[in-house]
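Purpose: get a first structural picture of the assembly so the mutagenesis plan has something to point at.
Setup: two entries, given in the order below. No constraints added.
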Amino acid sequence: VRRTLVVSIVMIGLTVPLASQELGRRLGGENGPPVADKALASRPVVKLPDGTVDLSGLWRDGGEARLPQQLKPGELDSLMLPWAKQKMASRVETDNPYFYCMPGGPLRLTGGFAWRFVQHPTVNATHIFQIQEGNSHSYRQIFMDGRKHPEDPSPTWYGHSIGWWEGPTLVVDTRGLNDKFWLDRPGTPHTEQLHLVERWTRTNFTTLRRVVTIDDPGAFSRPFDVEFTARLAVPGSEIMEYFCVENNQYGLPGGIANPASRTP
Amino acid sequence: MTHRVLGSVIVAVAVVVSLIPVPAAGQAPAARRWNPPSLPDGQPDMQGHWISDAVGAAHSVEDGRDPEADIIQARAGERNPIVIVEPADRRIPYQAAAAAKREQLLRNIFTPTQLEHVDPHVRALLDGVPRNNYVPGGMQVVQVPGYVLILYESNHAYRIIPIDGRPHIGANAKLWMGDSRGRWEGNTLVIDVTNFNEDTWIDSHGSFHSDALHVVERWTMVGPDRIEYEVTLEDPKVFTRPWKMAFPINRNKEKGYEIWEDSRHEGERDVEQILLGGRRDKEAGVTGIHEHRREAR
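Result (structure tokens, whole complex):
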């Protein structure tokens, strides 16, 4: 441990100006596998026997968001309905349910911690899973068997997701989301009318582009697109166990009531 | 009624058959042999939704469900199998000091006053292995080249089990779900699980273990819709000898069944009430131990 500490201190001194984000990740509680070397990007993207793209593997990032950064200055503000603006202004970081070990919704699932795409079965998949290392140590399922959304889905943290392929792009359509999670770190609000359409494209071996159309007539004046990039983790990396509920000092033990369990 | 009797006979025969020692090299007797289809990478196909038959084990692997709770829940008379198959007395072979600690836990469960007196399952913590296999909710098995994944509905827990022969992670890492390494022996998936923390219970009777727990699971496919599950637990710090549980795991044939989202920690308020009740009882001088009236069985 002592040796690691010394090495870390030396590394901080050497590399903070260039790679503070990566170091922050390694030292700041978001330890996870580093992203794969850029040299691997030129490897061919594998196609499965059914003609679809093999997305399987361990990925980093691809969604953790500060939505204003994805848009023109002031654009998000102009899209928010008045109540949403007021709600946004009233939110403080300590109210984010994510910090109380709640699932973060489809966008946050791919933020910060490593996650794994699993196509099941491997060929002619009927399900695609996104398995998250971090926070709630949970998973999201995407139905690929052609089913429709239920008429009146019970709102959940990950919603009801159906997917299909458009050429090399996996399209994921999600409804039935609850309004409890925050769309991004600063706390952009949404309603249960939220409808997400994600378009995942493996642009090269180590890169996944994700364009998300955010449509919520309850919170925004029109649909808008945001774009994220996921990077392949170093091949051979694995998800480790991260279990937020254990000894979380941020919530109840820290004297802050869990907003998700407050009596309405 | 005739059907039910016939069913009981079939179950009895199945139990007897399942107790016949399996010959060496994991070869099942010819009469029972059933070969599942193979996946493109050669793995026997064990995929799909499964649900264990070990009803009651999550409450107590030694006693099953509480008969008094069964009366309250209008379940009196329902099957309540005991899953321990070894040792012969079907009790967890605790060392003396560990048995005393477990008895104290059963007293604490009767009048809980501290967080540690409440079942980790109730506290929305992960169930660990093997408990996650017999808590309510079932599981979906997913196989990809090099891995078996088990996605549990309960607490949305999951296991990613490499089957490529790699070694366990370093001994210092202590995990809720442990570190699983699998291999196929014929139609049996053998999973070796180590690296446990000390914080999970095997059931809600305070059946604790230490961080030296070593679990070996054997998932044998004996038919298209049935897995014979056997698990050996050894823990030289608290058990006198390795012991075994066995029960069938059946395919969940409910049409269109999908895992539902279980965000267990959300709005968890039980613990607060349990502790309030326990402390009130304790202040009123109530003492006792959680135990089942055996004659009721």
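Strands of chain A lie at 57-61, 114-120, 127-132, 139-143, 160-166, 169-175, 195-204, 207-215, 224-232.
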